[in-house]
Amino acid sequence: MPDAYALDAMARAGMGAYRADLSSSVLWLDDRAATLLGIPPVSGPLPTGTVEAQIHPDDRPVLGELVTGALDAGSFEAEFRMAGSPDRWIATRGRVTCEPSTGHLTGVAGVIFPRVRTSLHHAAELVEDLPTTFFSLNRNWRFSYVNTEAERVLGRPRAELLDGDIWELYPAALSNAFETYYRRAMSSGEPVSFDAYYPEPLNAWYEVRAMPTAEGLSVYFFDVTERRRLQEETERIARRAQLTAAVTTSLAQTLDAEEAVAALARTLVPQLADWCVVTLLDADGAIRPSAMRDIGWWHADPAARPLVEEYTRHRMDALMGESFLMRTLRTTDVVRVPDDAAARIRAVLRPGRAQDLITELAPESGTVLPLRGRGRTLGAITLFNGADRPPLDGADLLTAQDIAARAGLALDNAYLYASQRGVAEELQRSFLTEPPQLDHLDVAVRYVPAAQAAKVGGDWFDVFQHPDGPTVVVIGDVTGHDLHAAATMGQLRSMLRGIATTTVPQPAALLTQLDRAIEAVAPGTVATAVVMTLEPVGPDGDVLVRWSNAGHPPPMLLDGEGDVVTLSRTNLLLGIRAETVRTEQTFAVRPGSTLLLYTDGLVERRDDGGLRGGLDRLRATLRDLRGERGTDPLCDELVQRLLPAAPEDDMALVAVRPRRTAG
């Protein structure tokens, strides 16, 4: 056994010492050695069997062979597991002694110490049993280790993989992300992570992590094919939703049917098809080529767009009754041409340029979808794909059908809009007659409807000669912006004219009588109005003006000197309280001065100062136009300068200018 100094040093290093006499099958252990072997320390010899019982059964033969084989070298090193703790390893180093005359082994002496191998053992077991593919490559790009999962995923047994060249066994890994990143990791010593697809026989997407080691590369990779599929499907769903939203926005931005539909082709290509043609039926809905027009088209390839445009110019004349487009329009079914589309479309076209063009455009598949409105077919969308793209199917087909349905309703709305707008304007203009020819007054009138049909409503004007001589000028506005407001406006205009022509023409009295009539005939109606009478006085053409205002924007006077006077006196609106006491004002106007009556549509803007700001703009514009000689040019300039391109409200305007007396 070692001396006291050696024992102390060994204890500090975690080592224990032992000596065995094999002839008598006993051995001696110091306290540290006994503790490492899990044996209570004793001062005397122990049977060798006591120590052997502490060693794992699988390691006992190996250990015995190792000691016996050390006769020639005189020393040995070994590792063994403890019987009760197979994850706990002990290392030993020692020398053997033998009988000089016979050379037989007689004894062993050495040291033991713990071997930190537990984590490695666990790691090996974990790597082997991992559900993740793991393999190691040496620096010659040969497999040095593969776990069970790697055998399964790589499709080869371990015996075939080990020591096999990865580039020979998996040649598709060359010249792509696998080779690029593996070589980068090996040369740089830095780990890499990447996603890559490996074709048949693996046919899968993988997330790969390669870590350089002293021996080569350790590679983990995970099959992410399903995750990739879900991700791509999510992206496709998002793109389809974005496409549908874009189409909806595009259709909502205009009520012009042709503009809305023509924009569809560019929106659908290339998201759903390589190229597209949008067709409209005429308003009568007749399904015949002469009543059909290709209104929009687009191709993903700029070089092919002139061909598509030319095709749309010729195909209607070439269409036969059994064409796919005609079939969709007649049946409202989605008609699909899944393959050989160019030849099959040629067969339903009359010989000529259209046949040549469809051959040159070479669609492999096509889909025709109806554009349906409320109970009627309005047109169709035809989507074409080339040989490099599969036919429209699945979720993409459903998206195309949804878009066609939305487009059909948008078309129907556009047609209804045009119809309603026409009815509304016709109704409105039927009440707004041209003013009479007057000897002493120049009169000009203007009416501009709102841009939206639903907002054509209650603005009106009237100019007529009273039987007793004065000219009566009226302007008014019924609250509301719809056909009901327009109809109510017609009632009020007729009632006021009837009252005026049968009574004394006094503005305040006329408004009072109209207010009472509203209460009796049209309760709930609220309106504003200005009634003005103009009567010649004196030899120079001067005119006496009487006027009364029921809550209407104030008339303005542009006098001969270019000054603008606002006639701001007003009373309560019509339809609020019939017993309202109404007042009127009187003043004289000289020839060359202009009276202006208007509705709020000329001046009021929600986003630009409201009514007050509009009145300021009107006054400034009138001053700027003070040299304008005619009432018609004056009205035209006011409309052009003050109205937006798409008015939100309808507008009525009356300009009256006394005429100088001849002589």
Poorly predicted sequence stretches spanning 5 or more consecutive residues:
118-122
Indicate the structural class.
Answer: alpha+beta
What percentage of amino acids are in beta strands? 25-35%
The CATH class assignment of the largest domain is: Alpha Beta
Approximate helicity band: 25-40%
**Dominant shape:** elongated
Number of strands: 26
Overall pLDDT confidence: 86
Q: Please name the CATH topology of the largest domain.
A: Phosphatase 2c, domain 1
- The CATH homologous superfamily of the largest domain is called PPM-type phosphatase domain
Strand order of the largest sheet: 3-2-1-6-5-4
The CATH architecture of the largest domain is 4-Layer Sandwich
Number of continuous helical runs: 20
Total count of domains: 4
Measured distance between first and last alpha carbons = 153 Å
Q: Provide the gyration radius in Å.
A: 50 Å
Keywords: Hydrolase
GO molecular function, one term: phosphatase activity
Pfam families: GAF, PAS_4, SpoIIE
Domain PAS: 119-189
Give a quick summary of the entry:
It is built from 20 helices and 26 strands. With 663 residues, it is an alpha+beta fold.
Can you walk through the features of this model?
The chain is α+β, with helices and mostly antiparallel strands. Helix 10 (225-252) packs antiparallel against helix 11 (257-268) and helix 17 (483-502) packs across helix 18 (507-521). A hairpin with a 5-residue loop joins strand 18 (458-465) and strand 19 (471-478). The protein contains 20 helices and 26 strands. Helices cover 37% and strands 26% of the residues. 32% of the residues are buried. The chain is elongated. It has four domains: 4-117, PAS domain (Beta-Lactamase, 2-Layer Sandwich), CATH 3.30.450; 130-223, 2-Layer Sandwich (Beta-Lactamase), CATH 3.30.450; 259-419, GAF domain (Beta-Lactamase, 2-Layer Sandwich); 432-658, 4-Layer Sandwich (Phosphatase 2c, domain 1). The strands form five sheets. The protein has a six-stranded antiparallel β-sheet with strand order 3-2-1-6-5-4, sandwiched between helices. It has a five-stranded antiparallel β-sheet with strand order 8-7-11-10-9, with helices on both faces. Strands 13-12-16-15-14 form a five-stranded antiparallel β-sheet. Keywords: Hydrolase.
